[in-house]
Amino acid sequence: MPMPTEQLTARRPEIAPDELISSLVPPPRFDGVRFSTYVPNPDEPSQAEAVTACSAFAERVGGSGGAAKGWRALFGRGRKQADRPGLYLDGGFGVGKTHLLASIWHAVPGPKAYGTFVELTHVVGALGFGEAVRRLSGHRLLAIDEFELDDPGDTMLVNRLLRELTDAGVFVAATSNTLPDKLGEGRFAAEDFLREIQSLAAKFDVVRVDGPDYRHRGLPEPPAPYGDDELVASAENWPGATLDDFDALCDHLATLHPSRYGRLVDGVAAVHLRGVRPAKDQAIALRLVAFADRLYDRAIPVLVSGGSLGELFDEEMLAGGYRKKYLRAVSRLTALARDAVSESGARA
């Protein structure tokens, strides 16, 4: 007998201030990853080299004695380039950067924090800059996934935050799809904060991770959209699933800070979206990117009707400064759509 189906649009998740720091841990998909579980592509030597570099960085962080010693005491003016307080993993989507970042986090003793760039800026906004620095400065490691610099305000905020934390002895590891001195290139007002970006880049040793998207190596195209009736039937018969109209979900996402998107989908077994179509504008598109990331973090299968997931972002969007973000979202959603087909078959 069909079950009542929950809607994501009926959820309004909240995160209490005291939870903001304690909840900064790797998402469920990366609970079990370690350096030993990363499988380098034999055709891409940079991947094996990245594992070695990340492992060495984790050992250095683990042996640092914690933030209390301070970077000035450890390195002083003459510290070597390899002793920079930050490690920056650069590469395209689907090469395992997040796997490596989470592996660093797992290999390092606490206290430590792991969050997306959006989550980090939300922590600062909610707690205030001084309180965020106070709470994070006692950490041994801060891991930041998908470093974003989409406006001058965030650039200055994060640059200042990292300067304060590294001065206090905190190590920083980060991922992005762009090299540090290229962050902001092709984005709005890049010329206004180029100097800040260059200052930030100086804190990181860069490790390149090359290769094709592992999620689609030798795999078929994404599954075709379901019919509306078929989609509804799946949602009604999938315990813990949600069913939403795509446009209504897009409107709902606009009412929530992206840092809440993870809490929005916590505990959901599968997401069903009816009437999928290309994003109407860039603001909606960027929210969908953040939403797709949180679905992927939690390995939540995605089923859709209407348009194809591969057509969420039009050619104009894909030609702009956020191209890599949009392609990453399509890559991740496609993988989740394949997961849905596999799980549906297993449940049949």
How would you characterize this protein structure?
This is Putative ATPase. The structure is a single chain. With 348 residues, the chain is an alpha/beta fold. The chain has two domains: 32-212, P-loop containing nucleotide triphosphate hydrolases (Rossmann fold), CATH 3.40.50.300; 215-347, 3-Layer(aba) Sandwich (Rossmann fold), CATH 3.40.50. It is 43% helix and 12% strand. The chain is built from 14 helices and eight strands. It has helices at residues 17-22, 45-62, 71-74, 97-107, 117-127, 129-136, 152-167, 194-201, 228-237, 246-253, 261-265, 282-297, 315-318, 323-347; strands at 86-90, 112-116, 141-145, 171-176, 204-208, 241-245, 270-276, 302-306. The chain has a five-stranded parallel β-sheet, sandwiched between helices. It has a three-stranded parallel β-sheet with strand order 6-7-8. Strand 3 (141-145), helix 7 (152-167) and strand 4 (171-176) form a beta-alpha-beta unit. Helix 5 packs across helix 6 (129-136). Mean pLDDT is 84; it is low at 67-81.
**Widest sheet: strand order?**
2-3-4-1-5
Distance between the termini: 15 Å
Q: Percent range for helical residues? A: 40-55%
Give the CA-based shape: globular
